[in-house]
Amino acid sequence: MFSFCVDPASLDDLAWMACYLTTGKHMAIYTSVFTVLLLLAITAPTALAFGFLGASSARSHFAPLSWFGKAYIAVVRGVPDIAFFLFFVIALDQLFEWIRHEVKCPDWTDSIWQGNDFVVCDIAKLPLGNSPQWVHETYGFMLAVLTFAIVFGAFAANVLYGAMRAVPHNQLETAESYGMTRRQVFWRILVPQMWVFALPGLSNLWMVLIKATPLLFLLGVEDIVYWARELGGAKTARFTDYPHGDWRMWYFLALLVFYLLFTRISEIVLDKVMRKLTHGQATLAGDAQRKAA
Amino acid sequence: MSCWETVADYGLRSIGIGERLLPREGYTLCQQFTLIGSGMIWNIYFGVLALCSGFFLATAVALGKASKNPVLRKASAWFIFLFRGSPLFIQFFFAYFLFLSLKPISPIFDPFTSAWLGALIVLFLNTAAYSGEIFYGALQSVPRGDIEAADAYGMSGWSRFKRVTWPTMLRLAWPAYTNEAIFLFHATTLVYFSGFPAWQQRGDALYYASFFADKTFNPFIPYPILAFYFILLTLCIISLFGLINRRLNRHLPQEARTKMKLKLNIIR
Amino acid sequence: MKFILLGTAALVITASVAFAGSHSVVRMGTEGAYPPYNFINDSGEVDGFERELGDELCARAELTCEWVTNEWDSIIPNLVSGNYDTIIAGMSITDERDEVIDFTQNYTQPDPSTYLALDGTDVDFDGGVIAAQANTIQAAFIAASGATLVEFATPDETIAAVRSGEADAVLADDAYLRPIAEENADLVVLDKQELIGGGVGMGVRESDTELKDKFNAAIQSMKDDGTLNALLAKWEIGPGF
User: Fold this and answer.
1) pLDDT on residue A51
2) Which residues in chain A are closer than 8 Å to C24, comparing Cβ atoms?
3) Which value does ipTM take for this structure?
4) Deepest in the core among A160, C19, C70, C185, taking most CB within 10 A?
């Protein structure tokens, strides 16, 4: 990066460090911080959407839909996320390619399983075999987001399901007696009120989500923990200009600070949101706010 | 070889009883079910012990965070923040590192670098922090009337805590605590995956699942088997905790009981 | 599935030939964590013996190649699922693997595995504690021997275990251990060797015979004109052909 970095072995400590921390490989770990943040930013609303769908179908009066919602919540919550991540991405990728294969190549006669190989026709490949690297990356990233969203959607569904049941029943009955349809009650009475009940659970989930990011490398996204391991491991002078011993300790220390800070900031923001939401609500916290004012 | 023989040979392999070598051919469904099931012994061991011991520390930490003594309060708050704010991955790493550096000091520390003790300590502290926060939240929402009633009966100090505050706190915290228990059992899969080395191929369920995934190059069989075991385990936890919940709430009238449950789902 | 951008421009080796058929771009899957075979260099790109070899093979076979890295544990499932087209990651040719994927002819001689230990320790190979990376042929070898096996997730940790005294020695590929012993005065490579791996070859899907033939021909031509031996000598990987 810097002009004086030509011969790192001759540099004094400070300059050496400056060069070391700006190698192309270190740029990768800095980028991965943004990758992780971006992934969290996309995953959170997606998971919430999955959770909302899951919770409302679990509440549905149409039995199969309700079973489906409940099964989704129970099964996905029951499995450790790590076990899910280890096989789910490949499965998801194959599912998409198979669907595209059925649509785009209807007259393909061979089986898509040739021995151990999963072979679809070329135009069904996702992404197409000759597309540039960034398309492959984006696709991998999207798969990771989807997998995360499916897993954490189940937890969110559980929280929202509880929150929907926590909205006082008399309110729903009152609305019905005013002649609202079931749909109107759901959208106008239930949904606006459930958030205050759901927020503590959802913010807890957000914390869990942050701390699940070290598992991202299982999904093919190189996250900060992956790079910290890679960069921190002992390096011999034959393969790098910056040989050093086992420095994982320091990299992990930096990660610890990063995660603690991130958690703290999240806590502060979520507290603020909670205070906003409870304002004017018929709950204990809402009462307390009124009294204080 | 029949499946029963496989079960006899490998059923307790994870704790070192049975065949010394892992299977080297076949990798049948029976072998996979048996060995992954055998690994579950460790998941249950870590989960149950950490949960039981963590329960007490969690109560202490919750009381500490709610106490008037600023030293106790700060210490408890920092303990909770440190363990809730960092990924388990990193906690395992630092714990292993710490135990390794303690080792030369005295042979007393030798067992700490093994998973059965070292990882257990980390999980114990971790779950104590998470449950401590749950209990603290519940402690804050114990109705003031309950405490006043206890005062009116002339209870104070320890007996008031034991008979009134603590049971109410537990009742309020229980649904969230159930979730924490589920998370803890799931977290036990990280022990051999990232934190501690596996000795003589004795590992947990995930260790054997990845062994088979590596041997058969097919992740679609061992990991769903692992998932199946964990769904069973989760169902057991939920029903066991449900029973305790019923007992905790047995004095409440039927209607209040269900109502209680609904409301409490939301407290973390 | 690991699709990482590793400095795009440097990655794509443009063969001037417009290539028709199924492989307009051949995606080369590697691990990027096993020097000298493959590793990520200071500028964040795949480097090492296999990078140079792969680039040369692609040029000779007139293919456009692109490098991607993937976790070792899922490197074969991702190949058969079609996320890249070859594995070029220091993978020894074994019967188990050969049942699932196809290999090209080997491009290294079988690399012996050696033990690395603290200088001056007397390692007991039948009763001592030997470290190995989990899910490697070395781990399976120790498990079958009399020694106590202790497995770590990464090769780095196995070395750290020897340093801290958790294990008496570590068993791994000679080419991996030797540079470490050379740089660290306190570590030595022991004389005892184990011949457990076969030679290293490129992995391709069984249904992809066309690609396999192309790479086979390219490897053969590199063997014939001596360029492969020169590469092996440059990266100090075992004897030549």
Assistant:
1) 94
2) 129-130
3) 0.86
4) A160
